[in-house]
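G., before I forget:
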Amino acid sequence: MSDALLSVRDLVVEFPTRKGILTAVDSVSFDIGRGEVLGVVGESGAGKSMTGSAIIGLIEPPGHIAGGSIELAGERIDNLPLEAMRKVRGKRIGMVFQDPLTSLNPLYTIAEQLIETIRTHLKLSERDARERAIGLLDEVGIPAASRRIDDYPHQFSGGMRQRVVIALALCAEPELVIADEPTTALDVSVQSQIIDVLKNMCAEHGSSVMLITHDMGVIAEAADRVAVMYAGRLAEIGPVRDVIQDARHPYTKGLMGSIPTLMHDSDRLTQIPGSMPRLTDIPPGCAFSPRCPKAFDRCFSVQPACERHEDREVACLLYDEGGRP
Amino acid sequence: MTEALVNVEHLSRVFDVSKPWLNRVLERDEKKFLVAVNDVTFEIRKGETFALVGESGSGKSTIAKLIVGLIRPSGGQISFDGKNVATQGSSSMRQLRSRFQMIFQDPFASLNPRWRVKDIIAEPIRTFGLEGEAARWQTRVDELLETVGLSSGDGAKYPHEFSGGQRQRIAIARALSAQPEFIVCDEPTSALDVSVQAQILNLMRDLQDEFGLTYLFISHDLSVVRHMATRIGVLYLGRLVEVAEGKTLFKDPQHPYTKMLLDAVPDLEMTGRARKPVEGEIPNPIDPPSGCAFHPRCALANDRCLSEKPELKLHGTTETACFAVDEGRV
């Protein structure tokens, strides 16, 4: 795709350990279009956060990008020197993390943190930066923003803090916002508010979003397309509605069946036997094969690549020849 | 109607959250109290799954701890099978104690990392002296491991060798080992991934059928509650606002807070059902609003809601604590 804002190709993230090299992200490729919200979903250890960290260049050593490329608006960002990467981070890519209390500095007021970030990335006077900060807080729905801006993070509730973090992520008008489990630490009623704020703010400011979460419900609410990850690899990518209503990869099918819903009565939830393999012992062939009800002999030896069928990509040998099984 | 196994009447629990004495004197502060559970009354019938739902700070875990006796109530009483738990002598309390067990949220914190799995599971058996000889509890532990879907050889391992889902299975085996009738499950799956959650929920239902267990199921996740519960109580700031049959609650919620909670659940099936955006946040429980605690967020609130506390009243099969429902203003 030429109009993609972010284009990740064959990304590999490795961690050298005493027991050998762990592949946390294994040849992952995807695009995020301008203004698009891409959901990345998976269970713990699926490599979704690691993919996000790789894009913003924040993988903790000794982990490192061992292959592939990441392009932001046609420009490679995976091999930038540290200083140049710092300019991309915050300016062109904004971040929202899971725990709003740890992403805000408890010793500085909201005003100081917002103004510092704004003035780092934009050439504005102190006063203009403050104006802009108040405007942003107002937009994310903080009541009496001009007064509350001088409060410290502990004076805000969890939901309000996450709103501040969203304002912070958007303050330099980034092209892409990476939101890593932005609602996981919040209650359901607050969660739905934060999803709305994130969605509307990014739409208004024209930012694309990479929304990383384990919660399929959040994806259904907010994302345009969804990428399902399993054991460091992509299982399936496609438009949200299609993936939810007609999952193709057996893992996605199992995952959808295992979520209890408000609408349907069912006595038993579909369950996927076993659990996700540890990164130290990913089985040969398809990583899902030992748990897959449809696995056949080739699945245990051949690692499937993501094959494109119209607007869906599925990494499963069942769809090898382009047809449905 | 089947008879009640657990009766909770006017249960309250107040926590003292004051600053230390010296600070209070110097800063002229009053003592501060947090009413975590406020005049809660419900019953749990034999063989059913009674669920308590609510957001953080609603008092659901406090109620769980009160029922199993991990903390003492500040007011009200709990009776188990007709016997008041507070007035039992120590020997009859001990007998009573063996009939209920608890499963905790975090399987990484609830299992002793220095004990082998078989010792963890056998602890209730030994504590209550259920099986005399060592050989008999060994076979019992093996049976239990297989009941929860592990293998009997796993008993010799330590908890760190297991994944989150497997640890929760161990916690369930431990709860079952005393052959309880009643298990309090405090967010048993919220630390687990969805596919593992499905395994544990299915297992819990199978065990309920097999052993005729009664559950108190505590969760913040409405979809999980809908899947598991026979009857549901909705908590808001320490008070029950609605108690209803599982299906009724989801089909025909009465209390404005219940409606709001249901609207907040993501529409996974993308049916496009009409939903109202959620307004406001839970107030600080140390300083709750007057009258009905939900009134600042409620579109139906009037003067009466600001000053009087609504009690649970029966409307059809649903009990609701709401003046708007009482007065037919909904």
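The longest strand of chain B covers residues 4-16. Chain B is about 35% helix and 20% strand.

More on Monday.
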